[in-house]
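User: Sequence recovery, please. Input:
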């Protein structure tokens, strides 16, 4: 029985190394904060907690003037909030192609009756700002109300230049708003909402913010708020104007998710105490360790780093494309069930053709060495040909 990949070697006894690009490992300080008892809704401490979460998120987002509105919802909920507040049915959005998350966002736009135009995805590359500029120039009727750009596309593993998207919009004098999905990047890599001219930023809890899933948020600047106020689309739960209230019960359109808010407060304190610059540097170092290891594995010709330009490789997740017929899903099952290490598979066109190692949130170099060791054992255990020296290369980056 022990040899069956579906049977854990030490059932339930050992913690699992969770290396998916969301959900991520929840550190003890966050877990403990989340177990605090609920407060009554008029307790001033609850108001303080919400206020601290709003200002902490604004700091991390690099904004001094946008409103941070939080939802008891996953990231898709915040996507929907942005769509129904900013766009009326029939209105157009330009979705910058960066990978399957951008595509999923475009499909969400279409599901709500709006029109999604897309710039082409360049496989293994970040979004193309020039293609955004070309598409906006061609829009002489000014039908496009917003450009949607994913900062770190968790499916492709590429991080895009969001400031360059703003420059592309301004270069042709187009009035489109810039909406950035920072769900997978916030807390892993720098993001400067105000400096980069982002009108709406969308984040979620279970990635680099080190919380369980279930909390998401939008930061909305004055221009986007004005567009939302003028938008006649019927909406209630997601309505930004209604949520822009000092009353907690209106802010959350009902009871605030207190457990997650306690956790978010603790997570933002962890980031502040370590220092954001150090947090980003740690993410970069861990990412470079993974890249070094994959480059060794790749020497046997069965896999490669999917993102071809090193500077576009995200600090959050490394995507590894595998050759035809490499049994990557068997490898993932073996890694999870025998070696207690969870990594993600490919999405969309890369299902069964890729695996993804998440390294965002509360991840330090020693943890990623454990994950890389487990993945190497699972690759070998599955009979996948890999080159030698991966762990030594990772240690080399670490030292
Ligand atoms: C995870 C993720 C989402 C979706 O978030 P959910 O909480 O799963 O709805 C959206 N965009 C990006 C970039 C993500 O990484």
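Assistant: Recovered sequence (399 residues):
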């Amino acid at each position: 029985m022990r040899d069956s990949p579906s049977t854990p070697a030490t059932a339930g006894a050992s913690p699992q190394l969770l290396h998916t690009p969301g959900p991520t490992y929840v550190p003890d300080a966050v877990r403990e904060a989340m177990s605090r008892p609920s407060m009554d809704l008029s307790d001033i401490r609850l108001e303080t907690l919400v206020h601290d979460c709003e200002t902490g998120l604004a700091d991390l987002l690099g904004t001094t003037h946008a409103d941070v509105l939080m939802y008891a919802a996953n990231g898709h909920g915040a996507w929907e909030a942005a769509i129904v507040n900013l766009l009326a049915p029939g209105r157009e959005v330009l979705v910058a192609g960066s990978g399957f998350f951008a595509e999923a966002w475009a499909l969400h736009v279409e599901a709500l009756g709006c029109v999604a135009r897309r710039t082409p995805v360049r496989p293994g590359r970040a979004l193309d700002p020039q293609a955004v500029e070309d598409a906006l120039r061609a829009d002489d009727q000014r039908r496009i109300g917003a450009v949607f750009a994913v900062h770190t596309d968790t499916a492709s593993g590429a991080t895009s230049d969001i400031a360059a998207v703003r420059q592309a919009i301004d270069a042709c004098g187009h009035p489109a708003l810039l909406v950035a999905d920072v769900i997978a990047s916030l807390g892993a890599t720098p993001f400067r909402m105000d400096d980069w001219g982002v009108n709406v930023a969308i984040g979620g809890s279970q990635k680099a913010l080190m919380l369980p899933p279930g909390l998401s948020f939008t930061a909305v600047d004055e221009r986007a708020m004005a567009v939302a106020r003028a938008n006649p689309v019927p909406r209630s739960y997601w309505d930004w104007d209604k949520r822009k209230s000092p009353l907690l019960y209106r802010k959350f359109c009902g009871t605030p998710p207190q457990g997650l808010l306690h956790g978010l407060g603790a997570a933002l304190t962890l980031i502040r105490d370590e220092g954001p610059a150090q947090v980003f540097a740690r993410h970069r170092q861990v990412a470079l360790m993974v890249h070094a290891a994959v480059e060794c594995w790749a020497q046997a010709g069965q896999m490669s780093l999917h993102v071809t330009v090193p500077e576009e490789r995200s600090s959050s997740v490394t995507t590894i494309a595998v050759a035809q017929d490499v049994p990557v899903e068997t490898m993932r099952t073996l890694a999870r069930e025998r070696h207690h290490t969870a990594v993600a598979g490919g999405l969309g066109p890369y299902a069964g053709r890729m695996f993804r190692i998440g390294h965002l949130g509360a991840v330090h170099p020693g943890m990623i060495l454990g994950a890389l060791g487990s993945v190497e054992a699972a690759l070998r255990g599955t009979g996948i040909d890999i080159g030698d020296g991966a762990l030594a290369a990772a240690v080399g980056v670490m030292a």
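Residues 275-398 form a domain with the Aspartate Aminotransferase, domain 1 fold (CATH 3.90.1150.10).
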